[in-house]
Amino acid sequence: MNAPNPRPIRIFLANPRGFCAGVERAIQIVERTLEKFGAPVYVRHEIVHNRFVVEGLRQRGAIFVDELDDVPADATVIFSAHGVPKWVPEEAQRRNLVYLDATCPLVSKVHMEAEKHHRAGHHIIMIGHAGHPEVVGTMGQLPVGAITLVEDEDQAETVQVTDSENLGVITQTTLSVDDTAAIMAALTRRFPTMRKPRKEDICYATTNRQLAVKEVAGRCEVLLVVGAPTSSNSKRLVEVAERAGCRVSMLVERAADLDWNVIGDARTVGITAGASAPEVLVQELIEAFRARHVVEIVNVEGAEEGISFKLPRVLVD
Known about the structure:
The protein is α/β, with parallel strands linked by helices. It is built from eleven helices and twelve strands. Helices cover 37% and strands 20% of the residues. A five-stranded parallel sheet has the order 10-9-11-1-12, with helices on both faces. A four-stranded parallel sheet has the order 3-2-4-5, sandwiched between helices.
């Protein structure tokens, strides 16, 4: 380790950052299930996109699997916060598995919107990223072909539908607010009668964290986003910082992963965390800076968040 550098670094901490209510609920579901039913408890896919969180739960007795085929008979299984296709709980019931659904309630809201459109006879356009678990889960709520995925403005300009008068639109909850607005504008121009959500599908936590990054990005030379490379909302924060004019923005999974050459001679650094990254990893990164520099912390205030989601009844004493 290098000797401490007397050159000061000012760290701007974005607020809010880190865990959202959906992530906190999902982690609590795994923890409470382990307490109530004992280990092992199986979890289909990563409960949230963060290796530190997953490893911590694994040490307590959670076993993460790719599919239900990997879950033994009569076991307890939990579905991740991203949501699952409809066939997954159906298969769990068929196999008599005890299962709990940790799907974020805001993702479940999008599922309900999709089903409502389908019942009304609307073809659905979904704005999202192909292959993301949330998109796979949402599209899996309906028969194949009922939802058409649009990933960017170019696709919005060229997507073809059979009946432009009977369209509904939904979105992934962890997208870039600005990108989604541009895609929505293109779709609305092409399909002016398209039915939109009454309330924005992009979740409050995604929106608030992106706004917080915009507040910080103009004050720092380098902005670090604590988060996993598989985390959609974390990667969007990096993009938001770039577009807001920050010279360098990058994703950092752990403090040990940081390339200090990127920091270089910067005197101002911004730090935030994606919605699935725990605060302990932010503090770990700050301590790494303190080991090398004289650090001043500046908290940049943002939206207040007081949202919480109820746990499944079976886990509430």
